[in-house]
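Dear support,

I submitted the protein below through the web form. The confirmation email said the job was done, but the results page showed an empty box. After a refresh the structure appeared. I'm attaching both so you can tell me whether what I see now is the final result or a partial one.
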Amino acid sequence: MNRSLKIRLWLAFGAVVLVIASLIGVGIAKSTSYYLTVTQVFADEPSPNAAVTVSGVIAPHSVHWNSSTEALQFAICDQGKNQDLVVDYHGARPQDFSKGWPVIVTGSLINHQTLKASNLEIKCPSKYEAKAPSSKA
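What the results page shows now:
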């Protein structure tokens, strides 16, 4: 093989490695889940229409569901805190939607206190609780 062919092959190989590395980097960046707490949303004051992902618990007595329009409005807060972020969600009501359960909401801020949700995920508390030790006699 002549020298220019070897150089071109190494350049092509380097380009392929670079493309694969960048695809892996993008995949890792998208798969990591980063979300704000309700307290952080109020402290940071993101601009209106800013896309955010927020984690919190469903505030007691805040759930309003309209089955005919599939409109769900509720508030989320941080555990033990009094600041509520109102969430407007349109779509099927999640099966395990219950007061006091942790949720992750993705959407855009309409104003400083209201989030228009495009995605709603419920965390099942039982999945994160330690199993009771079994007593064997």
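Response: this is the final, complete result; the empty box was a page-load delay. The first strand starts at residue 36 and ends at 37.
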